[in-house]
Amino acid sequence: MLKKHLKKIVSLVLVTMMAIGMSITAIAAEPYQNELEAVMDTSLADSGQVTHYDTTTGEMLVEDGELLTFDEVAIPVPKGSADTPSERGIEIYLVRAGIKKTSGGEFTWYFNVDCPTSPFVKPNIKLTAQLKGSFTTLSGSYSNVGGSVYHTYTSNSEYGVDYTWTVPAKTGYYYVAYTITDYDNATSGSGVTTTALSNRTGHAWNFNFSDSVSGKSLPMPPANYAKGATTTRPSNLADTYYNTYTANTGVTLNRSLYDVHHIRPLAYGGSNAYSNLIHLPKATHTQVTSWWAGY
């Protein structure tokens, strides 16, 4: 594990030592309100497969793949045993989080942590996590989703284990803010994950497609579309789209490779206008349509 993250650790050591050299005062941990203790969970994560019945087409749509998992966050925390900052060194904590299960209208979120810089005797720490969410757009206003959760680590066996908590399952943009308090050294550090869009079944939006000829691209959707169709799909929609595409670009697409997709689905108020349509590779279209079934 240590070898795998060597480059990341070396880089963080250099950056952190510079910061420590500027001040020997340990950074105070961010105060959290309404803290709850997370629950140890050694069970396996859900497979992530969800089946939906499309009442419009009569098809069975299958959402496949892992549930939302954030990229690992490396958090440097200065040691406090030496007299001068340059002699202190740092601990590196690798924190992971994501959705472990979805059931009964709830997300079960998890976090776990390792400390590769102390492979034999792990530090005594408290890891606090605060889930944040925006239920409009990626650039919208983020607020706490439930209270903060924590676990206090007092033995090696607690490292690498999932600790979980639940919140209502809701389509939204999410990230997690962490604070680590090192009791052995009376120091602390913090970090945040990237932001991800999840539907209500816990699957992340991870689709990308752009067409350089027309300038069309598939955007990340808002999280607050209300369900309700205002129109239906005409039988000649694909013909109209491809003919308009050719008229605008001078390029004729190979229809056998693509499906015509509504960027904002009709079921959520979308229209049949050319501006709301995009051609997607067939496999991508199947995945995107299944994701929307869990919206």
Describe the structure.
- It comes from Faecalibacterium prausnitzii.
- It contains 4 helices and 16 strands.
- It has 295 residues and is of the alpha+beta class.
- Strand 6 and strand 7 form a beta hairpin.
- It is elongated and about 75 Å long.
- It folds into 2 domains: 187 residues, no CATH class; 88 residues, no CATH class.
- Strands 1, 8, 9, 10, 12, 13 and 14 form a 7-stranded mixed sheet that branches. Strands 2-11-7-6-5 form a 5-stranded antiparallel sheet.
- The N terminus is likely disordered.
- The longest helix has 17 residues.
Short description:
The protein has 295 residues and is α+β, with helices and mostly antiparallel strands. 16% of the residues lie in helices and 32% in strands.
Tally of structural domains = 2
Question: Structural class of the secondary elements?
Answer: alpha+beta
Termini separation:
37 Å
- What is the count of DSSP helices, taking H or I runs of 4+ residues? 4
Mean pLDDT metric:
87
The description of the largest β-sheet is:
7 strands, mixed
Unreliable spans are 1-31
InterPro entries: HNH_nuc (IPR003615)
Signal peptide: 1-28
Organism: Faecalibacterium prausnitzii
Protein name: HNH endonuclease
